[in-house]
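The instructor's notes for this session suggest beginning with a concrete chain rather than abstract definitions. Hand out the sequence below and ask the class to guess, before any prediction is shown, which regions might be ordered.
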Amino acid sequence: MYNNNILIGIYNNNKDQAIEYLNELENLLLIFKGKVYKKLLQKRFKKNNLTFVGKGYLEKILIYVKKYSIDTVIFDDELTLSQIKNIEKKIKCYISDRTKLILDIFSYRAKTSYAKMQVKLANYEYLLPRLKHMWDHLERQKGGIGLRGPGEKEIETDRRLIRNKIKKLKDKLKKVNNQILIQRKKRINNVIISLVGYTNVGKTTIINKLTKKKLLTENKYFTTLDAKVNKIYINNKKILLVDTIGFLRKIPTKLIESFKSSIIEIENSNIILHIIDISSKFIKEKFIYITNFLLNELKLYNKKIFVVFNKIDKIKNFNYFFIENKIKIKILNNKYIIYNNKKIEFIIISSKNKNDIKELKNFIYNRVYNI
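After discussion, reveal the predicted structure:
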C-alpha cells in the first residue's frame, strides 16, 4: 500500500489550486517513500455521486493502473462508502482518499501515548460507517470461494465493539485532557506564545533557533503532532513557546477534533505567531485559510496575532510589493497587514539567519511587554 500510486482530483474553475492539492498529496506520500506515477485531474462542476469522477474517466485511470502496476489510487477528497465500492469494482486495487492517507500518516507519526490515542479515536470514527465495505473487501482478498457474507449480525457486533472502543478512548482522552488543564493552570502566570501555521512552514526550526534545542525537524508534513512547550529567556524574562500541529487544507474534521490539545494551547496563549512560508507558491490561500481559522473557527478576535514571514532567503530581490501582490492585501507603513479591516503586525525573517532570529527575539519581547 502507498508504494506505487496514482493521484486523482477534480476542479471546476481553479485548475492551479487543484494541481497544488495533488502536489500536497504527493508530498504527504514522501513520508511512506511512495512513488507517484500519474496525477490526473478531471474538470467537473460537481463530484459524481457514484464514482467521484465520471465513469468514462475511470476507464482512463484503469489504463494507467495496469500500465504502471499501481497498488493504490488516492482521491483528493473524502470518498463515500458507495463511491469506494463502485470505484474498486472497476479498478480492482486499493482505493484511498485524502482523509485515509492523513489518518495513516498520523498513525505512523504518533509517538506519544496521547497522540496514539487521538489517532486511534480518529481511525475508529472513520472506520465505523465503512465497516460493511471493509468486510466485503476482506472477502474479495480471500477469493470469495465457499465464503458466506458476514451477515448483519456479525457486522452489528463489530459496530458495537468499535462504538465501545470509541467511548473508552474518549473517556481516557477526557482524563488526559483534565491532566493537561491542571498542568496548564500551573503555567497561568507565565507568558505563553503559540506558533501556528500551515504544515511544513518551519515552526519547529524557529523554536530550535530561539531555544537552541534540537527538536526533530524534517522537510515533511506533520513532523509535530503533540503541542510541545519550550522555555526561552529574553532579558531574564521567561517565555513559553508552544509548537502546535501544522494545519492543512481539507484536513479531516474528526482529526482536528481529536487533536484538541494543540488547539486549546492556541486559545490559552497570550500571543499567537502565525508563521508563513513566504516562498510558497500558494501563500495567499494558505494565509487566508489559517487566518480565517484563527479568527472565525477559534474566535480569537481579541488575541494578539502577529505574522512571521519565514524563508525570506528563498526570495530574490524582495520588496514589500511582493507581499502585496502575492497575498493581495494592503501593507501599511511596512509594518502592518490590513486584513478584513484588522491591522496585523508582521516581521520578515529567515530562520537560517542569526541576526533575523535575534530580531525575532526582540520583536517577541517588545510585543509581550508592550515596549
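Then share the key points. The longest helix spans residues 151-186. Residues 331 and 337 are 5 Å apart (CA to CA).
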